[in-house]
Amino acid sequence: MLSFISQRVVKGVIVLLAIVVLNFFLIRLAPGDPAVVMAGEAGASDQVFVKQLREKFGLDKPLPEQLFIYVKGVVTLDLGFSFRQQAPVAKLIGERLPATLLLTLTAFAISLMLGVLFGTFAARFAGTFLDTAITVFALIFYAMPIFWVALMGILLFSVTMDWLPSFGYETVGANLTGFAHAVDVAKHLIMPAMTLGLFFMATYTRMTRASMLEVKRLDFVKTARAKGLRDAVIQRRHVLRNALLPVVTLAGVHSGTLIGGAVITETVFAWPGIGRLMYDALLQRDYNLLLGVFVICSAMVLIFNLITDLVYRLVDPRIEFAS
Amino acid sequence: MSKRVLLGLLLACGLAAPALAQEPKTGGVINAVIQPEPPGLMLAMIQNGPTQMVSGNIFEGLLRYSPKLEPLPELAESWSVSEDAKTYTFKLRKGVTWHDGKPFTAADVLFSIEMLKQTHARARNNLAQVDKVEAPDDYTVVFTLKQPFGPFLGIFEVGSMPMVPKHLYDGTDFKTNPYNNAPIGTGPFMFKEWQKGSFIRLVKNPNYYEKGKPYIDEIYWQIIPDAAARSVAYETGKVDVLPGGSVENFDVPRLSKLKDTCVTGAGWEFFSPLAWLWLNNRQGPLADKRVRQAIMYAIDRDFAKDVIWNGLGKVATGPSASTIKYYTSDVPKYPYDPAKAKALLKEAGYKGEKIRMLPLAYGETWQRWGEAVKQNLQDVGMNIETIATDVAGGNQKIGDWDYDIAFTYLYQYGDPALGVGRNYVSSAIAKGQVFNNVEGYSNPEIDKLFADGAVATPDSKRKEIYEKAQKILVEDVPVAWMLELQFPTITRCKVKNLITTGIGVNDGFKDAWLDK
Predict the structure, then answer these.
(1) What transmembrane ranges does the database entry give (chain A) (predicted)?
(2) What is the value of ipTM here, to two decimals?
(3) Do B430 and A42 touch (CB under 8 A)?
């Protein structure tokens, strides 16, 4: 297993470098010059100023040279300097990553737990009213755009009922500490985490239901039933366990992309995470910051994929690690 | 002419008089919205709108400006101009200290000017007319100009020329100076904390030189990226101040009607944002003056004002906003007249050639305005294709002159020599940049008028020159002027005296107080 992990890590680093190189060129294909954006923000865009900005950030150098400087930095764990925010990229991401991880992991946990639970119930009572209700419920949340769910949540829980705060990570100026602070953050977390989680919950519900219904038809389940095993045991030990494999695969993919996908939720709820940082960096053509966020998101996807493979083994011990 | 001494202090007292009706109360916290999050707070190096809005509390300039754009004292308590209008002498206020306790002196002014020439594009342009700056003593600064420069007294507000502490910046790498992250100024509020993505916290400067000010203890600038969420934050009582432009225009009437809400359009006199359509004068049908005039007749600007901007703002008459110096309304008029537009297009031989239009990617209001203008132009027979871009992509297209019509709005900076001429003179045609003469208009007469206007004396002569320039430009229609924009500031009515000068919220909260 250790050799499997070390092989995957080495391959992951190579993939990451390939992603860096690809992203480096892709970003530059987008129209828009960061120096002009910065000069425009400064209220003046005379040639001398734009030229100065290009020189200051090395944007006047040939592309291969810029790439070499960037990759050299990444290899030594230096993600460069943000043009617009005038701060090291690693520092900016480091400040925002905890908030994003808190949001996405909470959303991920909510969606996975509720999704598998609802999917199991729907499959267990297939064809009944409960199944129809869960399926319709999942379909609605699957179809609704995240930003709309977020705005409706704000309208209902903040404006109308005044139960939950509509924005931010904590109550600004309250200077709370300890348990009170944790409760305050939790109150701020509920709506964004639910908003982000509901879409994925709907996906897992549908996937679990479909997968369980498929597994239920397989021979080994019939055999188990013929052997006289109790239904609950069949469902838990034989059906759910096998039906979870596609859900784990999907969750593995989602866990990485959730971070990037938090852009809309973070924007609507003013959640200070890296999704927003990425969005701002894109609009401002802040190449280094954007590349930095991409590197982190890509690394997350690779890490979560590795974890997914390990979880596979736990769910189904028959799966062997390829050497 | 005898030496002209401007007693700004008296002026300031005069302006403050109405506020004395109610005695200011001290204490309290103001929560305001800032959007987007500023890239930094070091005003000498970063000059975008959000930075100015927050840092206008931390830093100060030598002068402030009244809503009528008359200079008022700030770090300079008085000033005088020589008879030949080439020497300006500023007397600095004594007893002013930086937030770290070091005294503010003329050496700081000299250093700031040298630093700004390297880091502040607009200041560098403004200072191009200065031959030398000297400090005969610790509290006197003398500017000697190469030639008289009419708008010179208009370049000293905090955003255009912030004062920087010499003792913290001299001999350092400006880009990496640690004080960029914890700025030290002379202003009424001190930087305390910045939680990136969440808020910026400023606290009262207890040693501020104006005794008793500021009245407020703390300001929290809350960072809320979504416009709808900003509206809700105000609606649910989490913020007290929505500076102009914080919420979509269509939300303004609804928010204005909320209980204990006050709205003002004041505080934009210095910037006077003017919206227009860049018209690419170089190519295609728009190279013909008659087509450009047809566009002016074809667009229903009253509709845009009343419906898209909810009645806010004013239909523009030409290149100068009515709030800046030397404005004249005595120019050719372009009322909404589709029939005349059609006739002009026919006369110009327009045969339905495709015209590419770039709306401004600044949110819903601008998007809707783009659709309305497209409809107006299609109604008179123009073949308009909308090109959707984001801000960076749009800037590149405009800077590369790869467009036919493009929306924009620009600041005027109080004087035609500072904020108007740059968009029309031939010398400002430079490919690759935006916010200069991107339309490619070239008229030697206009070049001469703007060149003469900047250096002419006395003011009556400048007035004459700029009025003539406005008439020529409006006749030629190098761009299609749309609206003088009004970005209303929405506040709880308990926030008193927030806006007292021509730069509004950007001037800081030093006079503001809470009627608790």
Answers:
(1) 12-30, 101-122, 134-157, 189-207, 243-269, 289-312
(2) 0.81
(3) no
Task: Sort A34 into a burial class: Cβ within 10 Å, 0-12 / 13-18 / 19+.
Answer: buried
pLDDT at B21: 58
A251 touches A201 (CB < 8 A) = no
Which H or E run includes A222?
helix A219-226
B446-464 burial string, b = 16+ CB within 10 Å, else e?
Answer: bbebbebbbbbeeeeebbe
Query: Residues of A numbered 78-117 whose beta carbons fall under 8 angstroms of chain B's beta carbons: which are they?
Result: 84-87, 92, 95-96, 99
Q: 3-state DSSP helix/strand/coil percent for chain B, to nearest 5?
A: 35, 20, 45
Cβ–Cβ < 8 Å for B30, B241? yes
* pLDDT tens figures, B325-346: 999 999 999 999 999 999 999 9
Residue B103: pLDDT band by 50, 70, 90 thresholds? very high
Contacts of B197 in chain A (CB under 8 A): 95-96, 99, 169, 270-273, 276-277
Instruction: Please judge whether A39 and B121 are an interchain contact, meaning their C-beta atoms are less than 8 angstroms apart.
Output: yes
Question: Per-residue DSSP letters for B108-165?
Answer: HHHHHHHHHHHH-HHHHHHHTTEEEEEEEETTEEEEEESS--GGGGGS-STTTS----
Q: Which residues of B touch A166 (CB under 8 A)?
A: 229, 232-233, 236, 238
Render pLDDT for A241-279 as a digit per residue (tens, 0 to 9): 888 888 888 888 787 667 766 888 998 999 999 888 888
- Rounded distance between C-alpha atoms, residue B185 and residue B44, angstroms: 11
Chain A residues close to B29, C-beta within 8 Å: 173
A-facing residues of B in 190-229 (CB < 8 A) are: 195-199, 201, 218, 220, 222-226, 228-229
Per the CB < 8 A criterion, the answer to whether B438 and B286 are in contact is no
Q: What is the pTM of this model?
A: 0.86
Q: In the 3-class helix/strand/coil scheme, how is B390-418 assigned residue by residue?
A: CHHHHHHHHHCCCCCEEEEEECCCCCHHH
Residue B387 touches partner A, C-beta closer than 8 Å: no
B482 in reach of chain A (CB within 8 A): no
Written as six digits, the tokens of B409 are 């709005």
Confidence of residue A45 (pLDDT cuts 50, 70, 90): low
CA-nearest of B356, B435, B365 to B388 is B356
Nearest CA in chain B to A30: B393
C-beta atoms of A43 and B233 within 8 A: no
How many CB pairs lie under 8 A apart between chains A and B? 167
